[in-house]
User: Fold this.
Amino acid sequence: MKSKIYLSLIFIVVAIVFGIIFLMTKDVQAPQVNNQKTISNIQQAIDNNQNSTDNEQQIQNSAQTFDPIANALSRITKKPFGIFITPKTSPVQPERFQGYHTGSDLETTSEEQNTDVSVMAFCEGKLLEKKIASGYGGVAVESCLLEGQNVTVVYGHLRLSSITAKVGNQLKSGDFLGKLGKGFSSETDGERKHLHLAIHKGSSINILGYVQSKAQLSEWLDSARYLQ
Ligand SMILES: [Zn+2]
Assistant:
C-alpha cells in the first residue's frame, strides 16, 4: 500500500517536473522564433536597401554620357583639359591663344581630313545655342544634368550648317549633333579639324576656350573624365 502511494507521488513529481521543463522550453523557444523573425526582417530590409541601391545605379547608368566621336580618349593628344599654353609653348603651332585650356581637344586622323566626321551629343539635354564665334567657327552649347549637377557642354569647331537640331530641341545622348568643320577654314575659324569639348559648371553659357587663372578654371570640369 505504502509503495503504491510512493509510486504515485514519484509519478506526480515526475509529471510536474516534465510539465515545468515543457513550459520553460516553450518560453525559451518563443523569443527565439521572434528573434528569427527579426533577423529575417533585417535581412529583408538589407535586401530592399540593396534593391534600391541597384535601382539608383540603373538610374545613373541610364543618364550615361556618350563619346561625341568614337575612341574619344585616345584622340586627346595635343591639348588636354587644364593645360596652360602660350603662343611659344603650345603643342599646336602656330598658336594665337594663351591661358588654361577649358576643354579637351579631340584630334582627327589624316584620313579624316577630307571626310565628314560626325559629332554626337555627349549627354541628354537641350540645345541652348548654335552660332559662329571667334576662335571656334561653329559652336554649339547644350545644357545637361551631369552627376546630379547642371552643366553646359561646349562643342567647338563644328560646321554650323550641319547642326540639324534647332535651339530649344531636346537631344538624347548619342544623338547626331553636327559635323566637324573643315580644317583651316572659316568653319573652324582657321583652326585644325578637331573638336573642342568643354563642360562648364552651372546653367549659364560660357564658351571661353581659355581662362587666365586656376580659380577661373575651377568653374569647368575635365570632359575627359566622362570619355572612353
Ligand atoms: Zn580646345
Remarks:
- The pocket of zinc ion is lined by residues 79, 101, 103, 105, 196, 209 (CB under 6 Å).
- DSSP finds two helices and twelve strands in the chain.
